[in-house]
Amino acid sequence: MDLAIFLAKYGVIIEFSLITLIIIITYVMKMVYYFKAKNTHAMTTLIQLFLNEKILLNEQITNQSFNKRWKNIAILIPIVRHLDRNLIQNKWARIRINFIRNIILPLARRAATKKDWIMRYYAAESFSLYSENGDEPIILNLLNDTVPLVSYTAANAAITYGSEAAITLIIAKMAQESWLTQSLYIQAFDNVSYATCYIVMNQLKNSKDPAIKATCYNILLKYPRIQVDWDINTDIQSANMLLMLAALRFIAHSQWRLALPILVSLLNDSNWQVKVVTLSCLKDLNAVDAIPQIIASLTDSNWWVRVAAAQALKSFGEPGEAALKSLNMSVETIDDNIADSVLNTL
Amino acid sequence: MIIQIITFVNIAVLIYFVILSCGYIFLLIASIPDILKRYKELEHANIISIMKSHSLPPITIIIPAYNEEEFICEMVDSFLDNDYSNIFIIIVNDGSTDKTLEKLIETYDLNPVPPMIEQKIKTTATIKGYYLSKLYKNITLIDKEHTDRSDTVNIAVNACRTPLIMNVDADTLIERNAISSIVFYMLTRPDMVAAGGAVYIINGCTVEDGKIVDTKMSLNPIYAFQTCEYLRSFLFSKSGWNSLGGSLSYSGAFTAFKHASIIEVGGYAINNLAQDFEIILRLRAYKYEHRSRNVNRVGYTPAAMVWTDVPGTLKTYWGQRFNWQYAILQSLLSYKKMLFNPKYGIVGFFTYPFFLFGEALGAIVEFIAYLSLALSLYLGILNVYTATLFFILCWGFLIFLTIMTAFLNFITFNKYKRTRDLLLILFFSVIEGIGFRQFDVLCRVSATCAYFFRSFRF
């Protein structure tokens, strides 16, 4: 009973004292946050003014000329991104690389090993802007980071870097992801060199894993008209649907009209997904020669195959529409947008 | 004999209160660095805008709709207007008897097509129609016969093709950056398979064209008490659990999952009123039982926020809380294998027992305490001074938790900016313990008795 009274009495006093203390601490913390944000904003403005001046005067930025207090990677990266988006003149391009090399990269190399994921993220961002020969181990480390955002960003950096080890690792990662998630990585292959293309092709030729081969085919769709020096027919006849469809898209993309005989033969495949992708490829190739075979698909038992056939014929313009009209068939009309939204997910 | 029993009960209640209070204080202390960290991360929220929109993982929003003709289009528009552009929306019309289906078809120019739904999770309902929008490539509508919510969501999960999914309530309005905040959180934590966001109460706020233009507390006491409760639950409780591997309870109104995880655990449980609670329990149990790569951590971020409608009368409040208590007991007791089981790690030793004895059965203990108090007074064995002090202590503790949460909100996400709102929170946190809390206890006791004795109900 005494214990109960003791607990109750002092508990009440402590509670109400704590409440008062919380109110005071809260207002103090609010002020601290306010001044911290103000400070960061002021620093960002100063750095932007400094860079703008250097750009106007066309002066390079060295370690010595850059204020030590401004060396905060979390502030510098957004500024560089902002300048990249808004300044397309040559002047910024001339000093940009030296600025990144002299100021940002040393910070990035230190940040890449920090415990805080935000620092590692900015490190990966820095390497995607520019990297040097010795940075490969750091980039590969970041690529294997447990935080997905850091890993995705490092993938951009690795693809830009373009070494065989980096590209191979990215392909292995992509192969484990679904089609929609792969698109996160495939974006990074925009505008990369043909050297990367050859690395991907080698990976395709040497790998036995269908998922990796399918991923390589999807990446190679980024490059126009590649010379195929491997047996692609084996992949088109693969039992693995992912690989088969990827190879199908690739052969239409790389061989163009030379792929027509193969594509037309696949219109008789038992699998509706194969037929739909084949029809989609024929549509992209403007294969008016294949109109008779496409017409046969208009009576397929699968609705999506019929839709893809109708879409292909419509896209051929007059010859295709004439074929549709001459048949006098009640073909289901469907808006291209609707069909695209589903057909493009196959 | 009776006096001895009552004394024993009084001491047991006192010990229970001390242990539970220590638990809440621990959660409160643990939540502070987590909340401050999430708030600090908002400084870097521009990371999301730095990445190109199509570089972000696509997410499917699942909206089960049953007789929601009044708000459904507003809700869908709020997702289309969201700053996260890589989203797909699957609306499932759960056999609505009003004009929900017609309104959706007309507004979004939906056209019927053959269904493209793989049966990854077993479902029971018959699909009556599958529609795609001419106006928006990312909107799908599935029309089905009326079954329970779990079956409805499972059908949408089967139709989904994105790596992330989010199940929302049809009466929830989301903030413009809510989805990017929650995806950001999931992308910045390794092995995160589910993440919950914060839910605030929309009643009292000003809404125009499906957007919240002004947030403020309602003067209606029932809304105000629930505001205090939601603040405590979503700001400190769930954040506190993050430090212990995650809570067992996330709002069904706003939780994102990895699609592969939901498929792996077999989807939502049918015939369970608290299916959102149960799926989290199942994910947590699955993690320890199977060590799967797809099923791992569960987290919470107060930076992702939505606004929901809550009951405004005592009758509707009773109905809602009765169902919740019943369903939570149903879910918790179906996983009693986890109780103090070392196989389930910290969940088995701390999280599950806390939820069972603290959250689910806490109302029973409180009810027993009131009964014991009354009996003690009747038998003349009550020390009035001690009892009053104890009551002030418990009441003060509730006020302390609410005030702490209100001020945490003030220094971080600050949803209730006005001084008026802060003062209202303070006021209602003081009067909550006199009357409303006891009403809530009675409701939950009624539900608990109904669960254990099936036919019993106050």
Give structural notes.
The complex is a heterodimer of chains A (346) and B (458). Chain A has helices spanning 2-57, 73-86, 90-111, 117-129, 136-143, 148-161, 164-175, 179-186, 194-206, 210-220, 232-236, 241-255, 260-266, 272-284, 291-297, 303-315, 318-327, 336-343. In chain A, helix 5 (136-143) runs parallel beside helix 7 and helix 7 (164-175) crosses helix 9 (194-206). The longest helix of chain A is centred in the first third of the chain and has 56 residues, at 2-57. The N and C termini of chain A lie far apart (73 Å). With 346 residues, chain A is mainly alpha-helical. Helices cover 72% and strands 0% of the residues of chain A. Chain A contains 18 helices and no strands. Chain B has 458 residues and is α/β, with parallel strands linked by helices. Helices cover 53% and strands 16% of the residues of chain B. Chain B is built from 15 helices and twelve strands. Chain B has helices spanning 2-41, 46-50, 72-80, 100-108, 149-159, 178-187, 221-242, 259-264, 275-290, 314-333, 345-360, 362-379, 384-411, 419-431, 436-453; strands at 59-65, 87-94, 110-112, 127-133, 139-144, 164-168, 172-174, 192-201, 206-208, 211-214, 254-258, 297-308. In chain B, the strands form two sheets. Chain B has a ten-stranded mixed sheet with strand order 3-4-5-2-1-6-11-8-12-7, sandwiched between helices. In chain B, strands 9-10 form a two-stranded antiparallel ribbon. In chain B, a hairpin with a 2-residue loop joins strand 9 (206-208) and strand 10. In chain B, helix 9 (275-290) runs parallel beside helix 10 (314-333) and helix 10 packs antiparallel against helix 11. The radius of gyration of chain B is 23 Å and the shape is globular. The two termini of chain B are 30 Å apart. The interface between A and B is large, with 51 and 51 residues.
